[in-house]
Write a structure and sequence with these properties.
Layout (H helix, E strand, L loop, with lengths): L4 E7 L9 E10 L4 E5 L5 E6 L4 E4 L9 E3 L1 E4 L6 E5 L3 E8 L4 H5 L10 E3 H5 L1 H12 L3 H17 L12 H12 L6 H8 L3 H12 L3 H17 L7 H7 L5 H12 L3 H7 L7
Helix pairs in contact: 3-4, 5-6, 5-7, 5-8, 8-10
């Protein structure tokens, strides 16, 4: 791969934001071969602010989806990977939001952003422009994370009517918690029964808030677990990954992997030049 450097700095948001925001990650990747990085679906909504050139992103991998240039971009929950075209250099900040926190930070349910990529300033307006300017002007990761805390707290403060998350049905919040805790390895019928709802009613309510049905979200969680295992520096054989993540067999993993990334696991590993950079 030649000489390359990769920096990845993780930070927790301010305590008042932790109900809504999972993490901040600053990244600086240089000297890699040009390629297309698969940004996988997962449990969190993601926003990325570039600190270098524009982000060139498509809403699908190898499927003809148009490539759009963003200075900063926010995405909802997805059922497939986004394709991030790069020249071997990427520098920016990634912010992970919980689906239930989308109301607090963006002022809308996560369902309104499902399967979409949106310029960040369309959601934040002038606050989004200020956020990007502050992050690019800062010279340290600590200063960037502090700016994120300040600006996101202001975004949350704009939400009217008390705690936005309190407007989410508690049964939906609990269903989300249980699915995440089980990494998707739990029957939706069981979750619905324990909440006193029918599966159909839970599905309608959950999709209306989160943007995916509970079954689809469970599949994303299972894939997310598999992706975590596959991106370690000493990855397990695919058959072991399938077993640990609750797939019926390796063929089942391959089918889901192909659906979520647009590539077979082997083709994905061969083409993912940023693999192992975090």
């Amino acid at each position: 791969m030649g000489d390359h450097t990769d920096t990845s700095i993780c930070a927790r948001p301010a305590p008042a934001l932790r109900r809504y925001v999972g993490s901040y990650v600053g990244f600086d990747l240089r000297g890699f071969p040009a390629g297309v990085h698969c940004g996988p679906p997962g449990r969190m909504l993601t926003a990325v602010i570039s600190l270098s050139g524009p982000l060139e992103v498509a809403a699908g991998v190898d499927d003809g989806s148009p490539v759009t240039r963003f200075g900063s971009v926010a995405g909802g929950l997805m059922r497939r990977s986004v394709a991030i075209h790069h020249d071997g250099r990427q520098e920016g900040v990634r912010v992970s939001l919980t689906p239930l926190g989308a109301r607090a930070v963006y002022g809308m349910p996560a369902a309104d952003l499902a399967h979409r990529l949106v310029p960040l300033d369309e959601l934040f307006g002038a606050l989004g422009v200020e956020l990007v300017d502050r992050l690019r002007a800062a010279t340290t990761w600590a200063a960037r994370f502090a700016a994120l805390d300040e600006l996101l707290l202001r975004a949350v403060g704009r939400s009217a009517g008390g705690d936005p998350v309190a407007r989410v049905r508690p049964e939906v919040a609990e269903a989300w918690r249980r699915l995440v805790a089980a990494r998707g390895r739990i029957q939706v019928e069981r979750v619905a029964a324990e909440l006193g709802w029918s599966r159909r009613y839970l599905t309608e309510r959950f999709r209306g808030e989160v943007g995916l049905s509970p079954k689809a979200f469970a599949r994303v969680l299972r894939f997310e677990h598999a992706h975590e295992l596959a991106t370690t520096h000493d990855p397990l054989p695919w058959a072991d990954v399938a077993t640990l993540c609750g797939y019926a067999d390796q063929a089942h993993l391959v089918r889901d992997w192909s659906e979520f990334t647009g590539r077979s696991p082997t083709a994905w590993r061969r083409g993912e030049v940023l693999l192992g950079t975090g």
